[in-house]
Amino acid sequence: MLLKTSNKNFIQGLKTGVCTFALASMLIAPLPSLAANENVPSIKDDAQVQQNTHDETVISTANIPLATYPASIKEAVRLIDQNKMEEAKTVLQTALNTLVITEAVIPLPVIRAREFLKEAETLSEKAERTPEDNQRLTALLDASRKEIEMAQALGYGTKKDFDTFYKELSLIEEKTSGGKSGSGFFESIKTSMTSMFDDSQHEDNAKTSTN
């Protein structure tokens, strides 16, 4: 039996497991620029391809659905009153064997882009950057763009998330060009990346399984 629930107040944490789905190296190839093309299809639009093109870590947590126990006990008592002992045992056993599995998806391209941008932000605030610093800053921004292009191809976010990211990244490149420095350049781009995390979650991120 398989049921679904999204009520987080319904459950008590039991155990957590982590599984990483890495994108096959043969699939990691230079991507065309996606920022300027609004009609680029997401790999996740194709169900068959999607099965083999994840680049994410999924954290699965098993929980006990305590809120179901009173109803199960009440039903078991009703069955016992009717001398239906085996059915009452089945009801109680089903309740005891039921776990709610919740999943949280961590899109790895977004994680990598965030790390690149964290270092880039530190360099962007450096008042007197060396030529090597400027080269490093440019490389970090380029690397973050490539990771988000991969995230877009895999469907980790919405069009709005990616439009905001590319727009803000271009502004950062402009504000830091020629050795210019300052603070606060990365606030909006951080917001767009937070949205990517939220929009990457599975539609049904909680399910109840009965063994």
Question: Could you explain the architecture of this structure?
Answer:
- This protein is of the alpha+beta class.
- The chain has 7 helices and 5 strands; from the N terminus they run ββαβααβααααβ.
- α4 runs antiparallel to α5 (131-154).
- It starts with a strand and ends with a strand.
- The model is unreliable at 1-11 and 24-38 (pLDDT under 50).
Outline of the structure:
Helix content is 48%, strand content 18%. The chain is of the alpha+beta class and 211 residues long.
Number of helical segments? 7
Structure classification: alpha+beta
Order of helices and strands: EEHEHHEHHHHE
* Proportion in β-strands: 15-25%
| Span of the ends, CA to CA | 8 Å
Summarize model confidence as the mean pLDDT. Answer: 79
How many strands? 5
The 3D shape can be described as rod-shaped
Low-pLDDT sequence parts: 1-11, 24-38
Q: Which percent bin holds the helix content? A: 40-55%
Largest sheet: 5 strands, antiparallel
* Radius of gyration, whole Å: 24 Å
Strands of the widest sheet, in order across it, are 1-5-4-3-2
Write a concise keyword list for the protein shown above.
211 residues, alpha+beta, 5-stranded antiparallel sheet, 7 helices, rod-shaped
List the helices and strands and how they pair.
Layout: E1 2-4, E2 12-21, H1 47-50, E3 56-64, H2 69-81, H3 85-97, E4 98-107, H4 108-124, H5 131-154, H6 159-176, H7 187-199, E5 206-210
Antiparallel strand pairs: 1-5, 2-3, 3-4, 4-5
Helix pairs in contact: 2-3, 4-5, 5-6, 6-7
